[in-house]
Specification:
With about 150 residues, the protein is mainly alpha-helical. The protein is globular. It starts with about 20 loop residues before the first helix and ends with a helix.
């Protein structure tokens, strides 16, 4: 063995890991993780309701941008959790439309950054809140239907 021989991989430059940014790739990744490690995430409707109520409270003048960003992040998490619960369980046209709105809003969230005007960020947060509220209502109805079916069996 010669002394100027390198360790395999030592000459490769280090590259920082890149994370997926587009919603399509993230959706595929989440689906793969669910298949590999099925985890039952509890859905806390009280927390979702409180976050939605805070977001939908009309505020004049506009709230601080930091608050809007944090609330938007929380609403995205709630909506993604609710979507993972109902992904593929959409037979009725209104539910399909709701799914389309949710995915469109989540994709739109990816394009917003610090340069986005405050009013646009505020309106996006409110739209996320309304869609999250609709999915939470759908989830609650679904849970009540399941309980009724269990009692009848």
């Amino acid at each position: 063995m010669t002394f100027n021989r390198r360790t395999p991989g030592a000459h490769w430059r280090h590259r920082a890991p890149r994370f997926a940014q587009d919603s399509q790739t993230l959706r595929r990744l989440l689906a793969a993780l669910r298949r590999r490690h099925p985890v039952d995430h509890p859905i806390d409707l009280a927390t979702i309701s409180r976050t939605v109520a805070d977001a939908l409270t009309l505020r004049l003048p506009l709230p601080e941008r930091a608050w809007v960003e944090v609330t938007t992040r929380e609403l995205r998490g709630h909506l993604q959790l609710l979507l993972s619960e109902y992904d593929g369980d959409a037979d009725a046209p209104p539910t399909l439309a709701l799914h389309g709105d949710a995915y469109r809003l989540l994709t739109l969230c990816d394009t917003f950054d610090v340069t986005t005007p405050p009013l646009h960020a505020y309106e996006l947060m409110r739209a996320l809140a309304e869609t999250t509220r609709s999915f939470a209502d759908l989830h609650e109805e679904h849970q009540q239907d399941e309980r009724a079916r269990e009692r009848n069996q």
